[in-house]
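Render this sequence as a predicted structure.
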Amino acid sequence: MFLQLPTRTLDLGRPRIMGVLNVTPDSFSDGGRYVQPDAAVQHARLMVEEGATIIDVGGESTRPGAEPVPEAEELDRVVPVIERLRRELDCVISVDTMKPAVMDAACAAGAELVNDVLALQAPGALEVVARRRAAVCLMHMQGEPRSMQRDPRYGDVVAEVRDFLARRLQACAGAGIAAASLLVDPGIGFGKTDAHNLRLMAELDTLLGLGRPVLVGVSRKSMLGRLLGLPAERRLHPGLAVAAVAAWLGASVVRTHDVAATAEAVSMSWTLRQARTIQR
């Protein structure tokens, strides 16, 4: 499997690591650490050295309860960093945004992938991505960040997430976005209870039936803390366990704050999965 980017193709024959680069003051795990471009680029360089193929630059927190960021402010945060990453590092640059204007400016600055928690539902988003020929990660979210965790409800969470993503894939096709440029993400922690998250992870391979690579992001998320009684700084090990299981179940991209450890865990899981396939 592969992902078509504007000027090249990313081989997804084995799982790839997406490193999180939050250039925000209020992200739940590392808010404020990489607001300055120099610090952001230095951290991105370290993540690439540790095994990240994709660097995901975000200028607006999507943690539960997060307040929206004005468009101009988000642009000021992400565009200078993306411009420098394009000049200084050999990696795929992703922009984590819901705003079409930010998508457009980020792609002009060098981003090749749009990681959108709204799955391109904002007016104009489909058109921007089609015009820029960017790759896209379509994520499922019930509600919006400020209220998504108040009372999420589903009849069948796996079926509803799968059907939503199928509809968004169709919308992209209708807008002229190539299927080869699309990833899907079940949106662990976005408008879901812990029970919903666990079922989605346990049945992650169901999403492979959509025919597109699957991205999973569970790094340091609060569900790990609730399930095991751990603060954010002690969620590395359970996050690695989930990342390894995701790779075993067929995830093509794992999004993480902790690149070195996650790259090792995912690589070992994939190696075991390959050995099992070859033996059969």
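Summary. The chain has a mean pLDDT of 92. The first strand starts at residue 2 and ends at 4.
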